Amino acid sequence: ERLTPRPTRSRRNPPDPPGTTYVAHARRVASPVVWDPWPDVGVHLEWGERGAGEAADRGDDLVVVDAFSFSTTVTMAVDRGARVFAVGRNDTVPPDTYEVPKARYDDSARMTLAPQSTAHLVPGERVALWSANGAAVVAAGRHAPRITLGCFRNRTAVAAALRRDRRTTVVACAERWSSIGAGHGVRPSLEDWLGAGAVIAATSGLTLSPEAQAAAATFTAAGAQLETWLRECVTGRELVAKQWTADLDYLVALDASTVVPTLAEDGFFEAS
To answer: What is the DSSP string of 174-241?
Structure first.
């Protein structure tokens, strides 16, 4: 322990009168605390690129949830037999691959981030899909042993495909404040919290971290209100304002697919 020194007296702060009693205040100098913030459980939940990178560093499998709309659009593309390359900020698109425009709507494009645009794909087609959230999270965690994509459409199939001999971190991707014209940075999003909870709630026999339990409990608590919550949350209303109303039907559909998009060694997502 160290004693905190008394302040030096100045002319404006004269000495205390004789007989004054002083009390010594001890200040503890803390030693660095070494601890592991990652819970030793079967399924944990984290947010965004940093969460994906940290989980991959420790050897966890990842389930990436960008419900509105990267994970959903890739699930629907893979369901049609296509292979999808997630384009991160520093990625180069592989040869013989159609690069999807960044614009959500482009009448001249074969495909966009809009789920309904996957109807034009054919089996074996290779597409590269950019996303400020989902693809960026995939890029940050690409060194994980295994990466799958989860959404409301395939949540039960994804839960059933979790490897029980390995820890899994479900990553809620979140949104960007810039998408609603409110500056920069990451905006935690209800749809990804609920999407992650939808996957976790479908698991069975796996230990869950408090974060994972909370997300699953939120999804379960939504009950019949789930679709209303999703359509009326900030991102849901953003999509309506940007003429994505028809796509919301695909985004909120529960258990509409049994496909689990899984990242292959060549960097493409394909059906597993």
So the answer is: -EEGGGGTS-SSEE--HHHHHHHHHHHHT--S--B-HHHHHHHHHHHHHGGGHHHHHHHSHHHHHHHH
Asked if residues 85 and 94 have their Cβ atoms less than 8 Å apart, the reply is: yes
CB 267 within 8 A of CB 88: no
Residues 6+ apart with CB under 8 A from 86: 70, 74, 129, 131, 134, 135, 138, 139, 263, 267, 269
pLDDT digits (tens, 9 = 90+) for 221-259: 999 999 999 999 999 999 999 889 999 999 999 999 999
pTM of the model: 0.86
Q: Report the distance separating Cα 70 and Cα 129, nearest Å.
A: 8
- Residues paired with residue 240 on neighbouring β-strands, in sequence order: none
CA 84 to chain centre: 18
Cα–Cα distance, 269 to 256 (Å, whole number): 19
Dist. CA 259–CA 246, nearest whole Å:
22
**φ, ψ of residue 249 in degrees (nearest 5):** -60, -40
Asked if pLDDT for residue 1 goes beyond 50, the answer is no
What pLDDT, in 10s, does the model give residues 120-142?
A: 999 999 999 999 999 999 999 99
